[in-house]
Amino acid sequence: MSYAYLSTYYPPVPTLKITLGYPEESLKLGPLTAIIDTGADGTLIPQAYIDQLGAPFVDDIRIRSHWGEWRNIQIFTLDIGIGSLRLPAIKVLGDESGDEIVLGRNLLNKLHLFLHGPEGQVEMLDR
Predict the structure, then answer these.
(1) What confidence tens digit (pLDDT) does each residue in 1-49 have?
(2) In terms of pLDDT, which residue wins out, 74 or 97?
(3) What one-character DSSP code corresponds to residue 56?
(4) How far is CA 24 from CA 21, 28, 59, 79, 87, in A?
(5) Spatial separation of the C-alpha atoms in residues 54 and 56, rounded to whole Å
(6) Are 25 and 86 in contact (CB under 8 A)?
(7) CB count, 10 Å around CB of 25?
(8) Which of 3, 19, 39, 51 is the 20 to 30 Å CA partner of 31?
(9) Cα–Cα dist 33/100, whole Å
(10) Integer Cα distance of 38 and 107 in angstroms
């Protein structure tokens, strides 16, 4: 599978199309564009999507942003689909202030991805 970089950012950012669902039910929200961020520890999902799905709450934690500010955030469990691949029970951070999906290393480490920057393409192997 191949996905185009999102050119509305400068420089263009690698993305994947994903679907979201409640664990052990159908993936029913999407396709949605998600930014690939290899520097992010965790996956951020806008709270509005989590609320639509009724995802199960896991825990409250305190995180530090890339700007150095601390804030409290909630963790939820979602199944995430990418093409024909379904990643079950992924812990995600509910982002109340953002409107972008950011895929962090907790999810990216489960995938075989190739970022072809000069071509502006992301290639994902189904393994």
Answers:
(1) 899 999 999 999 999 999 999 877 888 899 999 999 999 999 999 999 9
(2) 74
(3) P
(4) 8, 12, 20, 8, 11
(5) 6
(6) no
(7) 10
(8) 39
(9) 8
(10) 10
What are the structure tokens assigned to 10, written together?
A: 């400068």
Q: What percentage of the chain carries pLDDT values higher than 70? A: 99
CA–CA dist 12, 80 (Å, integer): 24
Cβ atoms 108, 54 nearer than 8 A: no
Q: State how far the Cα of 1 lies from the Cα of 83, in Å rounded to an integer.
A: 8
Strand order in the sheet with 2-4: 2-4, 121-125, 112-116
Pairing of strands 27-36, 101-103: parallel
CA–CA separation, 72 vs 62, rounded Å?
4
State the sign of the Cα–Cα–Cα–Cα dihedral 4, 21, 28, 98. negative
What does the block give as tokens for 7? Answer: 């050119």
Pair 45, 101: CB distance under 8 Å: yes
